[in-house]
Amino acid sequence: MDIAAGAREIDHSTRVFRFAPSPNGELHLGHAYSALLNHRLARENHARFLLRLEDIDLARCSHAYEEQIVEDLHFLKVDWDETRRRQSDHFDVYAKGLDVLRETGLCYRGFMTRGEIRRFAELRVEETGDLWPRDPDGSPLYPGLDRRQPAEEQDRRARDGESFAWRIDVAAAVERTGPLEWEEWGRGPDGESGRVVAKPAEWGDFILARRDVPTSYHLAVVVDDAIQGVTDVVRGRDLFYATSAHRLLQDLLGLPAPRYHHHDLILAEDGRKLSKSARDTSIRSLREAGLQRADIVRMLGLEGVV
Ligand code: GLU
């Protein structure tokens, strides 16, 4: 399957929105806000609205959580068109996307583990006194020591059973694509809107796939958005910076760029991001406590909007 050719054949005259939760926990108020707003914008624009389950992390995702999500969305009166797409059913498609990226010559196997990267960064700080750069999520950037390792050596290490992740040489990739932008209908953390300049280098040589899972979140999301003909990505502001990585992959894979709308995050009372383990804000526990849809809409400040 040629992902880019498939994406070109899609009729883009109808806009397509999607809600894409990961079934690795219960939906909380933040997800409810995202789903309700997304759904509202889709219906207002006479667009199609899709549900996609992002379950590539098979160890943490489950069908039980997926069914719970479906129940919560019914309760919120968020309905979707077509059958839901489950990413774990499409690993072969992401593997094809990875092949296309590998053919660009911009990918390599990175053999350093998360612990090794952390220790490398700590050592550099001790040695030089300079801070080692971190990505927008706060993780140290990949040092890329194996970036120029000959392919035969990489193959040998992989055959010998060393664990690795496929990474992109981001500096070389940026050189290849030239400057990239996206259209932001919402707002970034510093108020960014309109045409936003992508800065994929902020992520360093990010992961495209792992030894045993042929995709990462970044790769799967751009492939799916293209295959599903998504024209409008409405999601939380916590994913604003990820859009830079997505634009890079879309360009390298020859895929269209959707419009993006990054919305406000619903924060916990202490100002922190809501987490899936915080039972008190899960939709299920609020329902069990007897709250109705209207109560949740009011709590989210969406009265009169949805
Ligand atoms: N699956 C991601 C999440 O649960 C959302 C991805 C996206 O909307 O692009 O946060």
TrEMBL record:
Pfam family, one: tRNA-synt_1c
Keywords (A to Z) from UniProt: Aminoacyl-tRNA synthetase, ATP-binding, Ligase, Metal-binding, Nucleotide-binding, Protein biosynthesis, Zinc
Positions of the UniProt region annotated as Disordered: 131-160
UniProt-listed InterPro entries: aa-tRNA-synth_I_CS, Glu/Gln-tRNA-synth, Glu/Gln-tRNA-synth_Ib_cat-dom, GluQ/Sye, Rossmann-like_a/b/a_fold
Keyword Transcription carried by entry: no
Annotated ranges, domain Glutamyl/glutaminyl-tRNA synthetase class Ib catalytic: 17-305
GO molecular function, one term: ATP binding
GO BP terms, alphabetized: glutamyl-tRNA aminoacylation
GO CC term, one of those recorded: cytosol
Entry annotated with the keyword Transport: no
Ranges annotated as biased composition (Basic and acidic residues): 145-160
Matching PANTHER family: GLUTAMATE--TRNA LIGASE (PTHR43311), GLUTAMYL-Q TRNA(ASP) SYNTHETASE (PTHR43311:SF1)
Family under the similarity heading: Belongs to the class-I aminoacyl-tRNA synthetase family.
Full protein name: tRNA glutamyl-Q(34) synthetase GluQRS
